[in-house]
Write a structure and sequence with these properties.
244 residues; mainly beta; six-stranded antiparallel sheet
Length: 244
């Protein structure tokens, strides 16, 4: 049961939300809440230690190897198969997609999403084999196309000023390079801010500017939450997060 300690930092399922571990103790993306309503998701950090109060995103979209326009070609696979073989040339590291997702974006099979168990390695070559957690529910043919992604909470990076991936939350503390910890996604948080914010108004991701900062929400930006108090540029604002 989620709980909050009477003093110090909140705990989730017996673990400190400022946990910084070399060992994975929860499934990536697992969600927990403290009894005061703050929500957190379990993540694996990318190449730079996190900074408290900064906004983070998934690894950057790979429009060449993982999500090209029109999708990746595949070989025919029957209902019940648990592997998909990619016929498009790709460069993908061994098991880089483990825990991520495969979406069939062009029929046959379009609209179905599958969780990825693992993958083979390719280097500028066709033949990437993706192993699925669950069997195919609709047969694939050479006309089918797919797009794939690692889990959004695996290998997170600071939002680089203009998002290049999915916004995943705000760091409540330091998590070292390649370590595991918790990313805040809901409830009151301290967040780096750019611009002038008004209490009760929407807070969005920044579009061009300081890496890791939020900003007043405008058209075509992500809504991260709402101001609890007036936001002042270059300061850390109080924001009620509503990321997910």
């Amino acid at each position: 049961m989620a709980q909050t300690s009477l003093a110090g930092f909140p705990t989730i399922a017996g673990g400190d939300v400022l946990e910084n571990s070399t060992i994975q103790n929860m499934p990536i993306g697992a969600y927990m809440e403290t009894v005061d309503g703050r929500g957190f998701r379990y993540f694996k950090n990318g190449g730079v230690a996190t900074v408290a109060g900064k906004v983070y995103q998934s690894s950057a979209r790979d429009a060449t190897n993982l999500q090209p326009s029109g999708g990746l070609g595949v070989a025919a696979q029957a209902i019940g198969d648990t592997t998909v073989t990619v016929s498009t040339s790709t460069t993908v590291a061994l098991n880089a997609l483990a825990g991520g997702f495969l979406s069939v974006n062009i029929t046959p099979g379009q609209g179905y999403l599958y969780k990825i168990k693992g993958n083979s390695v390719t280097a500028a070559a066709a033949g990437l084999v993706i192993t699925l957690e669950d069997p195919l529910r609709v047969a694939l043919t050479a006309s089918s196309k797919v797009i794939v992604t690692p889990h959004p909470y695996s290998g997170v990076v600071v939002e680089p000023g203009t998002p290049t991936g999915v916004i995943v939350g705000v760091a409540p503390g330091i998590v070292s390079v390649s370590n595991f910890g918790w990313m805040q996604t809901r409830g009151p948080a301290s967040v780096l801010f750019t611009g002038t914010g008004v209490a009760g108004k929407a807070v969005g991701s920044l579009s061009g500017g300081t890496a890791g900062s939020a900003a007043p929400a405008i058209a075509a930006t992500n809504i991260l939450g709402y101001h609890i108090a007036t936001g002042i540029t270059a300061e850390y604002a109080l924001v009620h997060l509503n990321i997910g």
